[in-house]
Amino acid sequence: MKILTWILPMLFAGNAIAAGMTPSAAFTEGTTFGNANVGTAKAKIDSGVASDASSGVPNYTTSHPASGYYSGGLGSLTAPASTSVLGCTSTTGSSDPDPHTHGQCESTRMLMDDPGKKNVMFPLNPKTDPIAVTRDLVSGDAETYLGSLIVSGAYSGCATKTVKDPDTYQTETCNQYLTAGEESCQEILTVTVSVEFCEPGTVLWSYSTYKADTIQIVCDPNPSKLRITGNLTGWCYNNYSAFGHLAYVSVEATPQILQKGFIDFYRLDECKQYASWTDENGNVYFDYDNCLMWGPGPVHGPIAGMHPETTPNNVLFGSYYRRGCMLELKPSSCDLAAETCTFNLKFINQYNWDDSYYPDIIADLATPPLKTPQYHVETDTWDNQCGPLEARLP
Predict the structure, then answer these.
(1) Regarding beta strands 243-250 and 269-278, do their DSSP bridges make them parallel or antiparallel, or are they unpaired?
(2) How far apart are CA 3 and CA 59, in angstroms?
(3) What predicted TM-score, i.e. pTM, was given to this entire model?
(4) Which of 34, 143, 224, 316 is most enclosed, with most CB atoms within 10 A?
């Protein structure tokens, strides 16, 4: 019941405001009045004589029902307050049992009927109102403001209490993101076109037979032409020795024979020794137009299908002795835009002794697309200026 000591200044402060005083002046006057009468009121309450308390404090009782709400400091006023508000608002003033209850319920009914009146009639700012400010100061440091009462034993409402709260856990989340914005960068492609040449002597295509005849297309130092060589077995010649042929074809849309190799015509006289020469790869070639020593020729004619008079313009090289061999250039083409050439060749070889036999090998040969001796190479170089921006991407 000691709280009534602090209620008195509030009541008088309300009367002062009604008389036109400022809140600060009303608070000061109420405080002065309360301090002047606190001893008398306190003496009446603490005298131990019920009649003194009853005469000094209206409606005083030593067993007020609200005393049970304290519950050792652990009680809650929420439920009793809701019950009290419901009891007042569900009845009319004429049904109030006594003036004390009537005054309490009338104030409750007024505020519940028009909650806005509270702010108009009692404009208390909890941050600036002297009552609220002083209340916070006292509750925050009771010993400073009530020290004399505590020391003298006249006030025992403050006590040190240790409260242990259980551990609480809270999940916190956060987002990490990049602020969206417009950025620009460049990726620059530089294309370098260079002219390349095949290495002279490089074999671009090769064909071999079971008799060890070998035909090859070889890179020439002059990029406008290609070499076609034939290393053929001795069975093709009147002296039965192996022989190397060499011819040249042009690199153009329709390749032409630029220079033929040796073609051994049928003759009654036989050359026993021809002039010869060696190329840069060590291959030995004979100049059959330059006979160093003549002798008696063969008595049998060549294979009719291989006679040079049959296809004199297409034969690259060959021999027409008792056994014969021949390489013929068939219609071929070069795609100069794609820088490739495809050659069609026909190879005939007869190894049998009897001239009436058909050739043992008749092969129609087609090369895959071969890169021309001169060609272009594109080299792409990227200058990526977007690296720093790309590094920022998740």
Answers:
(1) unpaired
(2) 14
(3) 0.43
(4) 316
